[in-house]
Automatic annotation (TrEMBL):
CDD domains (alphabetical): HisRS-like_core (cd00773)
Annotated localization: Cytoplasm
Protein name stated in the entry: Histidine--tRNA ligase
Family to which the UniProt record says this protein belongs: Belongs to the class-II aminoacyl-tRNA synthetase family.
Region listing for Disordered, in residue ranges: 1-20
Top-level lineage group: Bacteria
Keyword Protein biosynthesis among UniProt keywords: yes
Gene: hisS
EC nos: 6.1.1.21
Subunit architecture: Homodimer.
InterPro entries assigned: aa-tRNA-synth_II, aa-tRNA-synth_II/BPL/LPL, Anticodon-bd, Anticodon-bd_dom_sf, His-tRNA-ligase, HisRS-like_core, HisRS/HisZ
Amino-acid positions noted as binding L-histidine in the UniProt annotation, renumbered to this chain: 91-93, 122, 136, 140, 269, 273-274
Organism, scientific name: Deinococcus koreensis
Example of a GO cellular component annotation carried by this entry: cytoplasm
Length: 450
């Protein structure tokens, strides 16, 4: 058998591939990134890209030593002598905060909105919607504690999934308070669970020491049964006045904007640097336990990484999970477009000419050519199979006169025109870059020269 891809990874495949589903269709994957880009950049977010691997210490401090991610799921790469090894990044937030600190992004106007997308790596038990290499869209805002920033971040996350056409999405909103509130809650949990240590899973015994809130997040059925029996009070009962006022302000904004949400007291983010607003985005099609995405405020993270204090908030959703939800809802995703112009020679002698016409036409439109001569009937069928809009033929007459015979596969109309008029013809058909809506973006240099 030929070599197979590693377990827990996916190939993103072109249109027409056998056994294609939405979560493996490359055009759907790119569509999610494009929609996210449009929504987030309109809101002022700037794109940032960070390395796929980072110092292990960044992940340890940035994600937390008590999390499953750090304890069991890190992919370690490279081992140079006594260097402790790098980690393939399991999420984007720690890297973005590191990049913010390291590159002096504090000098940019605050709050600074950043976004990225890319692969993340976690050595998890593989199942549907749970991969070892998956992809996230990530939005982070640095430099403000204003609840308006929190509410806007949640709204933008909802806007992205709505722009993708998803309907059955719910925001579950919670707050984990300020550090003093969380200390009080952890003390309460320690006493409560401390009386039942023998019933806790080994992981949760450890969590009881380090960070009792994480017990509530446990995947162990035994832990969850105990949590149910004990009738654990929610974190929300422990919010101090400031955190409560902040939580209410976030809710007031969301309500004013008609962004639906449910208060979910079970939402916990156990890490020390998390603060106040925390939420998850759920979808019926992906199952109650599988969030499409999540977010939270992390005002203590920059200091945790050894930098100056910078408040921050962010969210991420999994592109594959989103595509599974879209598939479950039957949301249509535009297919990758075929060529606007497909140029075919009717005789091998004219193949180079067909190639030259197609290559010239690429200044204005998506253009391909046939590498071998074809008969007209085959050329049209071939063009159709490739999703072409126009098929241009070059036979002996066209070659002698410097013309093209063009068939519009949509309308069936045939035209003969001088090759020199091709740009004008494409324009008339709405297939020329300059005639398109919206217009292709100008590069910065083109703008300067304009
Ligand atoms: P997290 O960083 O754990 O809050 O995850 C944010 C989102 O990333 C989740 O809601 C999922 O949509 C996605 N995600 C996390 N882990 C995986 C995984 N192993 N496979 C696929 N998607 C994932």
């Amino acid at each position: 058998m030929a070599i197979q891809r590693p377990k827990g990874t996916q190939d993103h495949l072109p249109e027409g591939s056998p056994k294609l589903s939405l979560d493996t269709r490359a055009s759907a994957f790119v569509h999610v990134q494009d929609v996210a880009r449009r929504v987030l950049e309109r809101a002022g977010a700037r794109f940032i890209a960070t390395p796929l691997f980072e110092e292990a210490e960044l992940v340890r401090r940035g994600v937390g030593g008590s999390t499953d991610i750090v304890r069991k799921e890190m992919f370690t790469v490279f081992y140079f002598g006594d260097h402790g090894g790098y980690i393939l990044r399991p999420e984007g937030t720690a890297s973005i905060v590191r990049a913010y600190l390291q590159n002096g992004l504090k000098q940019l106007p605050a709050p600074l909105k950043l976004w990225t997308h890319g692969p993340m790596f976690r050595a998890e038990n593989v199942q549907k919607g749970r991969l070892r290499q998956f992809h996230q869209v990530d939005y982070e805002v640095l430099g403000s504690t204003d609840p308006l920033v929190d509410a806007e971040a949640i709204r933008l996350m909802v806007e992205v999934v709505q722009a993708l056409g998803l309907r059955g999405v719910r925001v579950k909103l919670g707050s984990i308070g300020d550090p003093a509130d969380r200390d009080a809650y952890n003390a309460y949990l320690r006493t409560l669970f401390g009386a039942h240590v023998d019933r806790l899973s080994d992981d949760s015994k450890d969590r009881l020491e380090r960070n009792p809130m994480r017990i509530l997040d446990s995947k162990s059925a035994g832990d969850q049964a105990l949590i149910g029996e004990l009738g654990v009070r929610p974190m929300l009962d422990f919010l101090g006045d400031e955190a409560r006022a902040n939580f209410e302000a976030v809710q007031a904004y969301l309500s004013a904007w008609n962004v639906d949400f449910d208060i979910d007291p079970s939402i916990v983010r156990g890490l020390d640097y998390y603060r106040r607003t925390a939420w998850e985005l759920h979808h019926e099609g992906v199952g109650a336990k599988s969030a499409l995405g999540g977010g939270g405020r992390y005002d203590g993270l920059a200091e945790q990484l050894g930098g100056a204090a910078v408040p921050g908030i962010g969210w991420a959703f999994g592109i594959e999970r989103l595509l599974l939800a879209m598939e479950a809802e039957g949301v249509a995703v535009p297919a990758a477009p075929g060529p606007e112009l497909y140029v075919v020679a009717l005789d091998e002698a004219y193949v180079p000419q067909a190639a030259a016409v197609a290559m010239t036409a690429r200044q204005w439109a998506r253009s391909e050519f046939a590498y071998r001569a074809q008969k007209p009937g085959n050329a049209f069928r071939d063009g159709e199979r490739r999703g072409a809009r126009l098929v241009a033929l070059i036979g002996s007459d066209e070659a002698a006169q410097g013309t093209l015979s063009i068939k519009d596969l949509a309308s069936g109309v045939q035209t003969n025109l001088p090759t020199a008029d091709l740009a004008a013809f494409l324009h008339e058909q709405g297939l020329h870059d300059q005639g398109r809506q919206p217009q292709a973006a100008l590069s910065p240099t083109a703008q300067e020269n304009a």
